[in-house]
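Long-time lurker. I teach an intro course on protein structure, and each term I like to show students one example going from raw sequence to a predicted 3D structure in token notation. This year I'd like something fresh instead of my usual example. Would anyone be willing to generate the tokens for the chain below so I can use it in lecture? Attribution to the forum is fine with me.
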Amino acid sequence: MAEPFLSIRGVTMAFSGVKALDKVDFDIYPGEVHCLAGENGSGKSTMIKVISGVYQPSEGEIVMDGKSYSKLTPIEAIQNGVQVIYQDFSVFPNLTVMENLALTGEVSAGRKLVNWRKFRQIAEEAIAKIDFTVDLDARVGDLSVADKQLVAICRALLTDTKLLIMDEPTTALTHREVEALFKVVADLQARGIAILFVSHKLEEVFEISERFTIIRNGKLVITTVPEELDRKKFAQYMTGRDYDESSTAPTGEPGEPVLEARGLGLKDALYDINFTLHKGEVLGITGLLGSGRTELALTLFGVFPADDGEILVGGKPVVLKGIGDAIDNGIAYVPEDRLTEGLMLQRSIADNIVISELDNLSNGVGVLDDKRRAAEAELRVEEMKIATANPYNAVSTLSGGNQQRVVLAKWLATNPDILILNGPTVGVDIGSKRVIHLILNDLASRGMGIIVITDDIPELLTVSNRILLLQEGRLVAEVDPASVTEQEMSAMITGGSVPGKEH
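-- Reply from a regular --
Happy to contribute to a lecture. Here you go:
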């Protein structure tokens, strides 16, 4: 067997006496796709920064390409062929693709004059490495999330890369984009490049990884191969507890209609949308990117006023010309991008929770009642099971799953009758995902009507009473989650076929 490219030996990393990593060991071999898995806060990000030289461990040894380091620096990591693609890709959105690809190398080489012909040559060679088709003169900020990621991969491969670390690479990608990414990963693997795939998405890590290393609370739990684990055991190792994948869809009889769309239309996005949401029901809505699923959510929340048709709330027609109209009619919306649309990251957890009901928490002259504010925040923290020692800590100190619960708490404070969630568990680990699913079940049991918009098929099948399928702005099917498999649902969304099924 070949020698490992990377060996982590007894690595310990402490911050203010708290061990983020505690005597962790594992190896990565050339051309191996190795999954590093764990819940939010398990130590995954810390390990990435140790391997890339950003953090120097307090104990242990890093052996890289045969060379041993106790204090690895970022320059040494790069010289050894380590490249990291973080969740934000670290691209320059205001520069072109060509400039993003060529600039770093030219600057590091100390060149002060721009040679545009050389820039284009470097960029063309970079995208050719992974057969990436893109306009080199396009502004990177205008690209899709998937194409931004491919730009980051191309840039990483401009050096003699031997280990590519991908941090939650599929968080914001559709299923088709994930498939395209996995083809790129397979090509890199065939060229002998090792991939450290950092993720908590069970279906994806089982598809792509040759070995798993699972850490929990900074400690190594196990390094093993997929054949030795099933999804349930994998989740148990990650969370330290039995993992339940059973349905959380409400089991009671749905009540009267709480929201209806009749012939709803939005120019160039939605066409003749008809459906009914009942009290106590969770309605799943899915479709490919560009199917109109987000446009539908924003139309129901008044961001994009409908051009055709009507919306009924509680059986009465309503006109939603803005977000205020939606809130006044008991509609709440949890956006997909909680970091930029859902939260004020530097403000406290409490401030984020009460922001939507400041008027109700103020006295007659508009001064905020601190006691009522504190009581409301504490109530919502407990209700949403937000893991914090102090609700006045900045919301940025929370894990992704707890941040999402803060967004939920903010909107629940408005006491809505209708809750629309777009990608409710994007970037959330499996433990927190289950908690959110159970919260939705509880809200539905109290009579709330809930819409969940997502392309996460296991999530759809777990939380929904019914699923509506959107294609090119039209509703094309209604699906009973109990009657389909994940494969069949995926085929319906993508227009593909199911292995072993006749058509």
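Some talking points for your students: Residues 6-239 form a domain with the Rossmann fold fold (CATH 3.40.50.300). The chain has three domains: 6-239, 250-330+417-503, 343-415.
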